[in-house]
Write a structure and sequence with these properties.
The complex is a heterodimer of chains A (about 350) and B (about 600). Chain A is of the alpha+beta class and about 350 residues long. Chain A contains eight helices and 20 strands. In chain A, α3 crosses α4. In chain B, α6 packs antiparallel against α12. Chain B has a single domain, classed as MetI-like fold, CATH 1.10.3720.10. Classes of the chains: A alpha+beta (about 350), B mainly alpha (about 600). At the A-B interface, β6 and α4 of A face α22 and α23 of B.
């Protein structure tokens, strides 16, 4: 697959604040690519640099191989869906969707037909003459999507498009968004702070932190094999313990985390962080075990989310039965992820 | 048929091409370019002329000197006993003792002292009349409340000289008041007295106090009152402890602003007091008309120091005043209902307010419609006739001039205001600086601006050996635009602030260039503000007197307010107030129309 979009060494500062440091990304043709990270990590700035709404201080942004430095947003062939919809309040739904076609009329068929087709795709047939303030939040978001798609952009950019909607609606629109994107096969860059959403929708994702890209990959791989402690803790829940690794008895390594030593798979030496997912912890004997005291038990419907105290460390576990008092927790070596460094 | 369609399509394409080229041009200039253009224009027609006037006050011969200002400061005519103290500090203690032993007789405070005295009286009047009005509007619900509240905008669009005509028509020797009290054999002569001037200043500024305080009262959160009452405070106590402290900043802001306005009040004092009740501003004008410009300049410096200082304090208060909107405002009670002391006072106040506010305007309109005690259109016929009035004024020409200058002022002020609003709504730091610069035309006296434009632009300056001068009418239009454009900014900026960057960005990513995005997205959203701002600028231009009276060097350049003043003060016209009243009524209609536009579009008026 060819790269629809690539960033090479892109940096951006606002005064003293560094927004982006040396960002490298490649987005493949037709892919649903997600930028995920906490607020202020630079994901929206990255998106705006792609759209041409921000200039970069260093580095190159390429669309299909061509450097777009100095190309204004109106000439970049992108469609953007903004967090708060950004619909034109003085225009109807139809006029909003048709706006981009004023500058880029459809190659075949009429503007009317194209708008009707898009409204149908986003399930807003017959709503064309509504004023935008007569629409619900979800409908506005769909108009914004249809408007961004109307001029058939080569790249669709979505900036937290679902974050101002309530949870149920968000789920439904996420499905719809995915369907429309797949139907049209448009290359999409999606920005979200919601790691669960990122894991759910993406073909591939990039985890960003402090203006840097921490890791890029498909969701499952990044979740199972985080490259840094930040990624391990940001995607899903995790118990991360700093320790020192040395050679194991037969294979693998042993990590001394202070109050215990844990056997892990793989060859590690020196400072490492051992990460164990809450669902990998279980009560009872196993190769790596330690005694922890229950602090709080949350009922989660499909099980229990239990907070433990282990010699001053917080430990989180997902268990099928609610424990009491002090219990022995354990995990298997193959379930632990080891990240180099503290 | 086919050919026709082809041609019209080609014509349309040419039009599109032209438009596209215009957008490219606008993109190249940008909001920043327009802003810089505005600053350049302001530099030429405001900061340079005013600066030049102030500079002449601190130069003597070729060098810098404090002598001119010092001479003014130590002149008993301007500063009374303070001048004596300044010129001879050692004698001060002895003089103080002598004053005490003489039983504290009234001392001379000079022109500045008298101006301050008049301003204090005017401000007191505005507070005494304005605060109860605020109470009534904030406390009671009655039909027409919204209209009355909107009418408090009137001081900003009503020409002061017209108010002077109204007061003459009502309280003058042959006015409505004497017609009424004459029935019982009384006669009141208040012409050219302090009470008349103070009453007119009150008429002009009390609504401002009302407006400030009502606006503040409407942002008081009802829940704070409810909390106080739930903690055991009776209603009056809750109001005193919770509401009143929230209103104090706005009252103080209003007091400062009214004092500045009163201190600089010009047409009202000139027309109702004349040189007998001369204030600093009137004397400044007097000096300017005799072209004693350097003496006027040192006077202007001292006046500007006072008014700019107070304006600065005002701006600080304005910033500390609560700008938030309450989630739940304190509910108003209907004015109709059981007899309470509050309701009785409200009704009494309403009657007095009608006499004070409607009386003068009604008297003026009535005066304009009568001649010799009978209904007549003669006064309006006089306006249309091309005959020479007092001071060689052709009334029809003055009407035409006023309208032409106003159109010119609007054409200049709207883009100026819009570009300033566009730039200041984005950058916080720029915003604060320009916020102060914007206030400058309000805090610098119109007479000083007029003198500056007169000697800087109309008399001309020599730049690189070339003499550059500007025609009088152009200078008048420039002065009007400078005075009016802050109102455009104030009307456009809040609407502009509500246009989110995302909406603009959305248009950009859909293919619109910056100018096109502005035209398609921003402009429709700020259009009401632009129209309201234009209406303000129009009304202000039509009513502008201070700068115009200095700049209008010949009767051919007179505007309605200037002509009005000529009619009013020319004794030859004497009791025949009719023509002035007729022209005043025309002014009233024009400004009322502007007011309706402003009101309909939810215009903002705060300076």
């Amino acid at each position: 697959m060819t790269a629809a979009l690539s960033l090479e060494g892109v940096s951006k500062t606002y005064g003293d604040a560094v927004a982006l440091r040396d960002v490298d990304l490649t987005v493949r043709d037709g892919e649903f690519f997600t930028l995920v990270g906490p607020s202020g990590c630079g994901k929206t700035t990255t998106l705006r640099c792609i759209a041409g709404l921000e200039s970069t201080d260093a580095g190159t942004v390429r669309f299909g191989g061509a450097d777009v430095a100095g190309v204004p947003p109106e000439s970049r062939d992108v469609g953007v869906v903004f967090q708060h919809y950004a619909l034109f309040p003085t225009m109807t739904v139809r006029e909003n969707v048709a706006y981009g076609l004023r500058f880029d009329p459809p190659a075949t068929g009429t503007v009317e037909a194209r708008v009707d087709d898009l409204l149908e795709r986003v399930d807003l047939t017959g709503m064309g003459d509504r004023a935008t303030d007569e629409l619900s939040g979800g409908q506005r978001q769909r108009v914004a999507l249809a408007r961004a798609l109307a001029p058939e952009p080569s790249v669709l950019l979505l900036d937290e498009p679902l974050s101002s909607l309530d949870a149920r609606l968000r789920d439904r629109l996420r499905l719809e968004l995915k369907r429309v994107q797949r139907d049209l096969g448009v290359t999409t860059v999606y920005v979200t702070h919601d790691q669960a959403e990122a894991l759910a929708v993406s073909d591939r994702l990039a985890v960003m932190n402090g203006g840097r890209v921490e890791q890029v990959g498909d969701p499952e791989r990044v979740y199972r094999a985080p490259a840094t402690r930040f990624v391990a803790e940001f995607l899903g829940e995790n118990n991360c313990l700093s320790g020192t690794a040395s050679g194991g008895e037969t294979r693998g390594s042993v990590v001394d985390v202070g109050d215990a030593t844990f056997a892990v798979d793989g060859e590690y030496r020196g400072d490492v962080t051992v990460c164990v997912r809450p669902e990998s912890l279980a009560v009872g004997d196993s190769r790596n075990e330690f005694d922890a005291t229950v602090i709080d038990v949350e009922f989660r419907g499909d099980g229990y989310r239990v907070h433990f105290d282990w010699n001053g460390r917080d430990v989180l576990a997902r268990l099928d039965h609610p424990p009491e008092g002090t219990v022995t927790l354990g995990f298997d070596p193959e379930d632990a992820t080891v990240v180099e460094g503290e | 048929m086919g050919g026709q369609v082809g041609t019209s399509r080609r014509a349309a394409l040419d039009g599109d091409a032209l438009l596209a080229r215009l957008y490219v041009l606008a993109d190249a200039v940008g909001a920043r370019g327009a802003f810089l253009g505005t600053l350049a224009l302001l530099l030429v027609v405001f900061y340079f002329p005013v600066g030049a006037v102030l500079a002449t006050a601190i130069t003597r011969g070729a060098g810098l000197s404090v002598a001119p200002v010092w001479e003014t400061l130590t002149d008993r005519f301007y500063f009374g006993v303070l001048a004596g103290v300044l010129s001879d500090p050692q004698s001060a203690p002895g003089a103080l003792l002598g004053w005490a032993s003489a039983g504290f007789p009234v001392v001379s405070t000079g022109l500045f002292g008298f101006t301050a005295y008049l301003a204090v009286l005017g401000t007191a009047g505005a507070v005494v009349v304005g605060l109860p009005g605020a109470f009534v509007l904030a406390r009671y619900e009655f039909p027409g409340r919204t209209l009355v509240r909107s009418l408090t905008v009137v001081p900003f669009v009503l020409p002061a000289i017209m108010v002077a005509v109204g007061f003459t028509a009502m309280f003058g020797t042959h006015g409505a008041l004497n017609a009424v009290v004459g029935l019982v054999g009384l006669h009141v002569d208040v012409a050219f007295t302090v009470p008349l001037v103070v009453a007119a200043l009150t008429f002009y500024n009390a609504p401002l106090v009302t407006r400030f305080v009502v606006a503040a009262a409407e942002t008081v959160d009802a829940r704070t009152v409810e909390t106080a009452r739930s903690l055991g405070a009776p209603r009056w106590r809750a109001v005193l402890d919770v509401v009143v402290p929230q209103l104090v900043p706005s009252v103080l802001a209003a007091v400062l602003l009214v004092f500045v306005f009163d201190f600089m009040a010009f047409p009202i004092v000139l027309a109702l007091g004349g040189l007998r009740l001369a204030t600093v501003e009137v004397w400044l004008y007097h000096l300017a008309t005799r072209l004693r410009l350097s003496q006027a300049a040192s006077l202007a410096v001292l006046e500007a120091a006072i008014t700019l200082g107070l304006t600065y304090v005002y701006l600080r208060y304005e910033r500390t005043g609560g700008a938030g909107t309450a989630a739940a405002t304190v509910e108003r009670v209907p004015l109709r209902g059981g007899l309470t002391a509050g309701r009785v006072l409200a009704v009494v106040y309403a009657v007095l307010a009608v006499v004070l506010f409607v009386g003068p305007l009604a008297s003026m309109v009535a005066e304009s419609l009568t001649r010799g005690g009978v209904l007549s259109g003669a006064n309006y016929g006089f306006l249309l006739a091309q005959q020479l009035g007092a001071g060689g004024t052709r009334p029809a020409l003055a009407v035409r001039n006023s309208l032409l200058f106003a159109v010119g002022a609007v054409v200049l002020a709207v883009p100026m205001g819009a570009s300033v609003a566009a730039v200041t709504s984005r950058d916080g730091r720029v915003h604060r600086v320009t916020g102060a610069l914007l206030m400058a035309p309000l805090a610098v006296s119109g007479v000083v601006l007029g003198i500056g434009l007169l000697q800087g632009l109309v008399f001309g300056v020599t730049l690189f050996g070339v003499h550059v001068s500007v025609a009088g009418p152009l200078a008048i239009v420039a002065a009007h635009a400078v005075v009016g454009y802050p109102f455009v900014v104030r009307n456009v900026a809040p609407l502009l602030a509500r246009v989110s960057d995302d909406v603009r960005d959305a248009a950009r990513t859909l293919g619109a260039g910056p100018a096109r995005a502005f035209r398609d997205v921003t402009l429709p959203l700020v259009a009401p503000g632009l129209v309201a701002g234009a209406a303000f600028a129009f009304a202000i231009s039509v009513g502008e007197f201070n700068a115009t009276v200095v700049l209008a060097r010949s009767p051919g350049q007179y505007t309605m307010p200037v002509a009005l003043e000529r009619y009013l003060v020319t004794p030859s016209l004497g009791p025949a107030l009719g023509p002035a009243a007729a022209m005043g009524t025309v002014l009233l209609v024009v400004t009322a129309a502007s007011f309706v536009i402003v009101e309909r579009l939810g215009g903002r008026w705060e300076p």
